[in-house]
Write a structure and sequence with these properties.
Layout: E1 20-28, E2 31-32, E3 40-41, E4 44-51, E5 53-54, E6 60-63, H1 83-89, E7 94-98, E8 115-116, H2 120-128, H3 146-152, E9 158-159, H4 162-180, E10 183-188, H5 192-201, E11 206-212, E12 259-262, E13 272-275, E14 290-294, H6 305-313, E15 319-322, H7 341-355, E16 364-365
Parallel strand pairs: 6-7, 6-10, 10-11, 11-14, 14-15
Antiparallel strand pairs: 1-4, 2-3, 4-7, 5-16, 8-9, 12-13
Helix pairs in contact: 4-5
Length: 366
């Protein structure tokens, strides 16, 4: 035990930082209000980690999902180093956000909408239950288990209105890319659509799009499996987002999109909905390497395929990968926190190196 550790209880995880060259934090976005409240609203907290030896020209931007903060990338549920440390060790610079109005990003009760959190039972069912082949969560996955309790303690309330979340992230995400330049985006769950929104708005600055079990499926309620339609039978979403995307031909509103049912591509999948022919194209994102990743034993496994299919149909060739196809088994939705989290991160590193142009560079000391 080092001198530094002597006064720190052994129950508190400590991780050596030999790969870390420098770190910092900053805020991006945010606008002064004009309604007389005299506040700044919408600013986003960002941490940056630079490796001791930089091997990749493009940094990673890690974006968390619902009820999470950037903490989910820092340490696993059982106290091991998280993906930030893993990717630093592989020579990437890493940015970690807290969504606007979440965590260390400022939220004003007087301006932002209703907030919600996830009850314990919902977290058990969605994230940590060992049932149905989910074997990688450490511990029992139930309340009272030390690891589960530590994980549940990290869950925070977020804005209830997902459209409001995406609108805030649209502004803050563009501001982040304008400040840091070219980057590879990795979004988990609720943050999957952030990847596509930011790539739509700043295509020249996005060098890779990775959506890990993104919100979805396109046009569809995940609760009912039925399309989300208005009273006239028109879609109420832009397929993979709730906020507008730059389609060709343009769609002035979601109502202008036309959808059709699509059969399941295999017994392990649900049926879905795509654009009717001829599909509008997302030309701004064309040419950006794109991945949608699913775990083997998650509630997402049956329908994430359709997010990749939507993008490919819209002219953005997208790889859909199930971890089980790569020999990585037993994961649930929170794969970055599970026992084999490094194995999952190693797959992402291989995918980035294989699919992102000019990804490798001569070593540079920071």
């Amino acid at each position: 035990m080092s001198k530094t550790e002597r006064n720190i209880p052994r129950s508190i995880p400590l991780h050596e930082q030999s790969h870390l060259g420098a770190r910092g934090f900053f805020y991006v976005g945010g606008e002064y209000t004009t309604d007389g409240s005299d506040l700044m609203d919408g600013q986003m907290y960002v941490e940056v980690y630079a490796p001791r030896t930089l091997l990749h020209p493009y940094p990673l931007v890690l974006m968390h999902g619902a009820c999470q903060t950037g903490l989910c990338w820092m340490q696993t549920a059982d106290g091991r180093p998280g993906w930030v440390d893993f990717f630093l060790g592989r020579g990437y610079a890493v940015y970690v956000i807290d969504q606007p109005a979440r965590g260390r990003s400022v939220s004003h009760i007087s301006r932002n909408g209703v907030r919600k959190g996830l009850p314990v039972g919902a977290v058990e069912r969605s994230f940590t239950s060992p049932a149905d082949g989910h074997t990688q969560w450490p511990g029992s996955g139930k309340r009272g288990d030390r690891i589960f309790d530590a994980f549940y303690a990290t869950q925070v309330e977020g804005l209830f209105d997902v459209r409001e979340i995406q609108e805030k992230m649209r502004r803050a995400g563009a501001a982040l890319l304008d400040r840091i330049g070219e980057a590879i985006l990795i979004g988990h769950s609720q943050a999957g659509p952030f990847v596509w929104i930011m790539a739509n708005d700043r295509p020249d600055l996005v060098k890779g799009m990775i959506a890990i079990e993104p919100s979805g499926p396109p046009f569809t309620s995940v609760q009912t499996g039925q399309p989300l339609l208005d009273g006239d039978g028109n879609p109420t979403t832009y397929g993979i987002t709730l906020v507008p995307l730059d389609f060709t031909p343009p769609a002035a509103s979601a109502r202008e999109l036309r959808i059709q049912a699509a059969p399941a591509p295999g017994a392990a999948f649900a049926s879905g909905y795509l654009q009717a022919d001829p599909p509008r194209q997302l030309l701004r994102m064309r040419g950006i390497p794109s991945l949608v990743l699913s775990a083997e034993a998650s509630y997402h496994t049956k329908y994430d395929y359709w997010s990749a299919a939507f993008l490919s149909q819209a002219g953005v060739p997208t790889q859909y990968v199930r971890l089980s196809d790569e020999g990585i088994h037993g994961n649930g939705h929170m794969m970055m926190l599970e026992k084999n989290s490094d194995e999952v991160a190693a797959f992402l590193d291989r995918w980035i190196c294989a699919n992102t142009p000019a990804d490798r560079m001569p070593p540079q000391d920071v």
